């Protein structure tokens, strides 16, 4: 690499930074002007928010890595052009080619997809190397795609980025998105996709970058309808929370299914059996029957006195109206309103025929009279009252669940002691899902333009339906791994699961190249995968580096000391460290580590800043640490029906080094220690 060429790139960087400062000044000025000129309060707020967020992003970044790539085109539509690609568009002023092009722009696709076999008009693809603290341009690497190049070669800059030690929360991967990932990131908004991705293949990264891409490409549509990201728990959301803001996107809702459905405090608990029944898709039919079972055929005429008149609608006509509305299959609450307004229309026609003056007050009065009559035929309902009426009453449940749930299943979900009123019911997490189902039968919930569901394999069929209700008119990106399913109801087949998610025809794509877990660890994980009875392809590691070490402790009592030793050793390297153990074993283990002078933060308490984190196996999903000390695999494998899947998750969290410590014998599939 010539010094002069690097100097030239540094000079260009200086120009980019100056341009960014100009953009920043303009944005700041526009914030001031925007606050004065916008026509109404709503536009003023929107404009102000947009400009402020732009000013903030630019203000935080004028000295950041302005670009990570460069494309020199020799042929095709862009022949003779040179483009720099970065996280954000850098403008050179009106009417001039941008100094840096946003990674999401159409031409940037070539940066990710061009290869020696298909150069797409590119003669040279340049990747830039940056140091982080301080941020400085340290070098570059060229691929001469136009001359054929070496199709199998891996860029050193890409390899270094993928292998770098992990510290703190998740970071964006814009500079090194791989072609198979880029295809998913840029898939169209109108179709839904499902990514079956082995551990560390970048599913989460793909989902987050896809959100940023879709917002850039379909800004207007998605600003109106919204993008929602669903993750498995708060620890995971905390871990991924910085990625989208770093990509300039701050308006994406990121939450868990539990939070999305929350209607009030959850103070109840279910037996495993009861939760299993409540999360089963058949509950949807039970709830529908319970709710619509309230609608009865009118048996009395409606008679409404009106001054010297009496309007009358006979039961046959009322029955026809109710039956007609039921056939339309609109939500229950909408149906009631429709029946009401149709009956009022009948009254109006009678009144008009008699020359009665009709005004708004008359219509309201008739509406009240019809509503009172309708209460017996199509009663108003609320979710809590409907569900309590079912779980607290064996006869009502038997009526609604007849032929759907077995008597045993019915008794599993019946309340042993029903509360006095539905208002004092102690709802469980599974009840929240049922309440949402009833709420969805009453009224359609707010929908989103696009929903991204991470760790989707763990959603129950009823949770999937809750997501489906919110994406009925939008599309979804479903991310998951059947092998990492640890919930009792975890999916075993994507097609079934996609059916519950309301997108049975979503395109199913498998990712198999792992960018987290080193080859030595992937080999063990693949052996375990063969035991898991799921139909998913094995992982291939991108990384030849990394280390797997297996140590046998002299009995259970010796495990904490062995763990302390392993952590001390790990502290000698750069990066984050996790001690992962079975949930029940973690607290005593952490206490013993502390006694040995090693402080391990809990997963929720500001763990991002700590070097060592104690992670219960049940919460390890989606997270990664540079060095993992995995304590007693047999104990993790022994925790319930999905213990082996939980172990598979725990085994695949390490970026560079995995220490497996055991006192109990290792399972047969575990390779003997080297
Ligand atoms: N193209 C890439 N360039 C650099 N790093 C990458 C790339 N793809 C993935 N990674 C990194 O690999 C790690 C794993 O990615 P991610 O967590 O998205 O995988 P995942 O498929 O969701 O894993 P899991 O199923 O185990 O949760 C992350 O640190 C991510 O930043």
Task: Give an account of the 3D structure.
- The chain is 43% helix and 16% strand.
- It has 674 residues and is of the alpha/beta class.
- A 6-stranded parallel β-sheet has the order 8-7-11-12-6-13. A 6-stranded parallel β-sheet has the order 16-21-20-17-19-18. Strands 3-2-1-4-5 form a 5-stranded mixed β-sheet, with helices on one face.
- Helix 19 runs parallel beside helix 20 (461-470).
- Residues 161-162, 173, 176-178, 181, 197, 199-205, 481, 484, 515-516, 622, 624, 652 line the site of adenosine-5'-triphosphate.
- Tally of DSSP helical segments: 26
Ligands present: adenosine-5'-triphosphate
Low-pLDDT residue intervals, each spanning 5 or more residues: none
Mean pLDDT: 90
Class from helix and strand fractions = alpha/beta
Separation of the first and last Cα atoms: 41 Å
- Main beta sheet: 6 strands, parallel
Give a quick rundown of the structure.
It contains 26 helices and 21 strands.
Descriptive labels:
674 residues, six-stranded parallel β-sheet, 21 strands, binds adenosine-5'-triphosphate, alpha/beta
Topology of helices and strands:
Elements: H1 3-37, H2 41-60, E1 69-73, E2 82-86, E3 101-102, H3 109-113, E4 122-131, E5 136-143, H4 156-163, H5 179-185, E6 193-197, H6 203-217, H7 219-225, E7 227-231, H8 234-240, H9 243-246, E8 253-256, H10 257-261, H11 272-278, H12 282-292, E9 302-306, E10 309-313, H13 315-328, H14 332-353, H15 360-377, H16 383-391, H17 394-401, H18 407-413, H19 429-442, E11 450-453, H20 461-470, E12 475-480, H21 494-500, E13 507-511, E14 513-514, H22 519-529, E15 540-541, E16 547-552, H23 559-571, E17 577-581, H24 583-595, E18 601-602, E19 612-616, E20 625-631, H25 633-637, H26 643-651, E21 654-662
Helix pairs in contact: 1-2, 5-6, 6-7, 11-18, 12-17, 12-19, 13-14, 14-15, 16-19, 19-20, 22-26, 23-24
This protein binds adenosine-5'-triphosphate (ATP).
Adenosine-5'-triphosphate (ATP) binds at residues 161-162, 173, 176-178, 181, 197, 199-205, 481, 484, 515-516, 622, 624, 652.
């Amino acid at each position: 690499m010539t010094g002069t060429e690097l100097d030239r790139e540094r000079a260009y960087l200086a120009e980019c930074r100056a341009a960014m400062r100009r953009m920043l000044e303009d944005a700041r000025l526009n914030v001031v002007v925007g606050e004065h000129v916008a026509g109404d309060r709503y536009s003023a707020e929107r404009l102000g928010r947009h400009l402020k967020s732009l000013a903030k992003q630019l203000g935080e970044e004028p000295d950041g890595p302005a670009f990570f790539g460069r494309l020199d085109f020799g042929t095709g539509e862009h022949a003779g052009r040179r483009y720099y690609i970065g996280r954000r568009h850098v403008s050179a002023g009106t009417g001039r080619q941008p100094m840096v092009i946003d990674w999401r722009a159409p031409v940037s696709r070539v940066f990710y997809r061009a290869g020696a076999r298909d150069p797409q008009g590119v003669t040279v693809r340049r990747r830039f190397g940056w140091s982080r603290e301080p941020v400085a341009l340290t070098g570059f690497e060229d691929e001469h795609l136009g001359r054929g190049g070496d199709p199998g070669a891996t860029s050193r800059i890409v390899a270094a980025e993928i292998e770098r030690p992990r510290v703190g929360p998740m970071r964006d991967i814009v500079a090194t998105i791989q072609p198979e990932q880029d295809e998913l990131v840029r898939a169209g908004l109108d179709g839904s996709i499902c990514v079956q991705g082995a551990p560390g293949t970048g599913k989460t990264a793909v989902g987050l970058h896809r959100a940023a891409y879709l917002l850039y490409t379909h800004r207007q549509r998605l600003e109106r309808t919204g993008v929602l990201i669903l993750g498995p728990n708060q620890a995971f959301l905390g871990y991924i929370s910085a990625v989208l803001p770093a990509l300039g996107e701050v308006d994406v809702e990121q939450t868990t299914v539990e939070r999305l459905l929350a209607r009030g405090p959850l103070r109840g608990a279910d037996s495993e059996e009861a939760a299993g029944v409540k999360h089963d898709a058949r509950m949807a039919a039970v709830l529908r029957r319970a709710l619509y079972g309230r609608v009865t055929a009118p048996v009395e005429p409606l008679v409404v006195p009106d001054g010297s008149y009496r309007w009358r609608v006979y039961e046959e006509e009322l029955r026809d109206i109710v039956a007609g509305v039921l056939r339309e299959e609109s939500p229950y609450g909408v149906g009631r309103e429709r029946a009401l307004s149709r009956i009022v229309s009948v009254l109006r026609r009678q009144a008009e025929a008699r020359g009665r003056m009709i005004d708004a007050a008359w219509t309201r009065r008739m509406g009240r009279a019809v509503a009172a009559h309708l209460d017996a035929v199509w009663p108003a309902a609320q979710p809590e009252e409907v569900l309590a009426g079912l779980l607290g009453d064996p006869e009502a449940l038997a009526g609604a669940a007849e032929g759907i749930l077995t008597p045993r299943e019915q008794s599993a979900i019946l309340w042993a002691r029903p509360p006095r009123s539905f208002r004092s019911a102690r709802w469980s997490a599974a009840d929240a899902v049922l309440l949402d189902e009833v709420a969805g039968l009453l009224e359609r919930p707010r929908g989103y333009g696009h929903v991204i569901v991470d760790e989707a394999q763990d959603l129950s069929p009823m949770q999937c339906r809750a997501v489906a209700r919110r994406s009925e008119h939008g599309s979804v990106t479903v991310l998951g791994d059947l092998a990492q399913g640890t919930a009792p109801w975890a999916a075993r087949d994507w097609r079934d699961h996609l059916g519950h998610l309301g997108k049975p025809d979503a395109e199913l794509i498998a990712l198999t190249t792992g960018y987290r877990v080193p080859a030595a660890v992937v080999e063990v994980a693949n052996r375990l995968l063969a035991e898991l009875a799921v139909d998913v392809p094995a992982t291939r590691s991108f990384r030849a580096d990394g280390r797997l070490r297996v140590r046998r402790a002299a009995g259970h009592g010796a495990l904490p000391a062995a763990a302390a030793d392993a952590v001390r050793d790990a502290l000698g390297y750069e990066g984050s460290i996790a001690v992962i153990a079975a949930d029940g074993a973690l607290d005593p283990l952490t206490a013993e580590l502390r006694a040995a002078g090693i402080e391990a933060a809990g997963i929720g308490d500001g763990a991002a800043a700590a070097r060592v984190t104690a992670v219960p196996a049940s919460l390890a999903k989606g997270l990664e640490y540079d060095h993992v000390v995995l304590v007693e695999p047999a104990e993790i494998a022994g925790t319930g029906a999905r213990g082996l899947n939980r172990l598979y998750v725990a085994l695949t969290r390490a970026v560079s080094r995995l220490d497996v410590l055991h006192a109990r014998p290792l399972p047969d599939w575990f390779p003997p220690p080297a």
